[in-house]
Amino acid sequence: MEEGSTFNKDEEELGLYLNSFLEDRKVFPIPRKKCCGTSRSLYCTECCKLLVEKQEWPTSIQSGRLELPFDLDIILDDRRNSATGFHALVLCNESQSVKEECQKVRLFDIEREDTLPNYEDEENTFILFPSSDSIPITAVAHSIKRLVVMDCKWTKSSSKNLPQLQNLKKVHLINAPESFFWRWHNAGKGMISTIEAIYFASLEVAKSNNQLHEDNTENLIDIMWLFGIQRSATAISAMRDGKPSPFSKDGKTLQRELRKTEKGSEKHLRDIAMGKKLKENVRQNKESR
Questions:
Q1: CA distance 268 to 228
Q2: Domains of the chain: total
Q3: What is the distance of C-alpha 238 from the center of its chain?
Q4: Pairing state between β 146-152 and 125-128
Q5: Which residues form the DTW domain (predicted)?
Q6: Is 184 helix (H, G, I), strand (E, B) or coil?
């Protein structure tokens, strides 16, 4: 089998899975719940608890069958509410708790100054990061015991320079598919969300280890469950406003046009003020700890 030869099929299956949320209106309407001192939807970014009623969970999570083929470390360098890596953390934790097994997904928040592990002696730990010195994940899939991913904006990759990550071997996906994400970017082709990258990396490693059979494929795709709900919610909201779905080509073009900022314009000045306010909030939070 050639590298990347099944990506079209995998991409098609994921597209059908995600579109089913639009067709069935799964888990809609989404009720908000109070957790960790505030009202939240779907899951809590503090305690990482799934807030959807258990009877609505996919069977794979209710039965504890959703499991990644490797341990996963998420290096978070983004806002918690925007980071799709949280989906893997929340869903895998809930699935593992059914079997009362140890957590295999860990989160390290750069903004909160979490201490990163020392990966120096971990030969079977790799970081998923495309670069000139990265190798196809298929070349070492059989050796991957722990995968490190960075959850950050497409245009922000400074966290790759963290000293704890410098000696990790880098891997990349072959023929990364078009993203199903609803957020736009100008970073070029092949840029997908963190949870999509985790899903496709999981497929490659499971195939290499002969762990991918029909039942396991159905279980593994549920790592995209929260993504599917959120994606569908953005489409429904756009339809109500008479706008194209934000994950469509027209929708992303519209978002780019709306967010164009001319230097010195009123929007530019508002953005600067908002940026200063956010930085001040971060500074105050650090001082209060």
A1: 33
A2: 2
A3: 22
A4: parallel
A5: 40-234
A6: coil
